[in-house]
Design goal:
Elements lengths: L2 E8 L4 H4 L11 H16 L4 E11 L3 E4 L3 E6 L11 E6 L2 H13 L4 E4 L8 H10 L6 E9 L4 H18 L3 E7 L22 H16 L2 H14 L7 H10 L9 E9 L2 E8 L4
Helix pairs in contact: 3-5, 5-8, 6-7
Length: 284
């Protein structure tokens, strides 16, 4: 019935918003912003009506949760980095129907999930940052999925990803893009050293691992990457436990996936972390 038109792993670094503002960092994240604009352009060209975001800044302790309110509007300041993102206005339409379909399919497959449409839940910046650059005209409806899953297994998150695709393709009447919003390695600069790491990765080991991972993605070596994902997450401080990545890969077929990613924004360091915008071809 429905169509999964686009899938991507994206950055949401708050310095993208800082990059807009007058000051010493103005323009510093233009490449990342341009990558988001390109992904938004492709979504429009593909006829996407809804963007689902696996957001590693939404922490949950039990079950999988979907924020599918009918309408999102607010003024956002990051409680993590309030000097980077403050008083950010946002407004986007939601898609309760799709959110509930995802939860129903996930529950039917044995992955306990809940959709929240009658809710005061706001959006976290893992969703707000990309929507600022991809969806400024509010063309796309937005559904946000909690991607910081503290007590969950990566294998279960892959199964949740499978349910997302089944909900879209077998039960939804529309066209959807799905974004895994999170970093590669994610060790922040130590307190007091942040300015030194504004454009760097925390340690050469982390950068080398990240670049090797990107190579694997470009080569389509998914069996190897999925096998190493738990250890990669553990040793490289994966953001949100890298559950967004597990969801994305489960949605695309797991170890049977054969796509080779297209890098839209080349790998870069930001505040110690490793970042990228990369499109994952959707298998037909």
């Amino acid at each position: 019935m429905g169509k999964l038109a686009l899938a991507a792993k994206i950055t949401h670094v708050p310095s993208m918003y800082l990059s807009e503002l007058d000051g010493p960092h103005k323009g510093c994240r233009q490449a990342a912003i341009a990558g988001h604009h390109e992904i938004g352009r492709r979504c429009r060209a593909l006829g996407v009506d809804t963007i689902v975001v696996f957001d590693v800044h939404w922490l949950v302790n039990s079950e999988y949760h979907i924020n599918c309110g009918p309408h999102f509007q607010g003024l956002y300041t990051s409680n993590e980095l309030p000097h980077f993102i403050k008083n950010l206005p946002y407004e986007y339409p939601g898609n309760p129907a799709l959110g509930h379909l995802i939860a129903e399919v996930a529950n039917a497959s044995g992955v306990k999930s809940r959709a929240h449409s009658d809710t005061s839940l706001g959006l976290e910046y893992g969703t707000l940052v990309p929507m600022r650059y991809m969806n400024s005209d509010q063309q796309f409806k937005v559904v946000s999925v909690a991607g910081w899953c503290v007590w969950h297994q990566l294998e279960e998150s892959m199964r949740f990803g499978q349910a997302v695709r089944e909900a879209i393709e077998e039960h939804y009447d529309g066209t959807v893009a799905v974004l895994a919003s999170g970093s590669l390695s994610h060790h922040f600069a130590d307190n007091g050293t942040a300015p030194d790491y504004m454009h760097k990765v925390y340690n050469p080991f982390l950068e080398e691992m990240d670049r090797r991972v990107v190579d694997m993605w470009e080569q389509g070596d998914w069996a190897s990457f999925i096998e190493m994902l738990p250890m990669y997450n553990e040793k490289c401080w994966g953001e949100g436990g890298m559950h967004d990545t597990a969801m994305l890969l489960g949605m695309l077929g797991g170890v049977t996936y054969q796509g080779k990613v297209e890098v839209v924004t080349p790998y870069f360091g930001s505040s110690g972390t490793g970042q990228i915008n990369a499109i994952f071809p959707v298998p037909t």
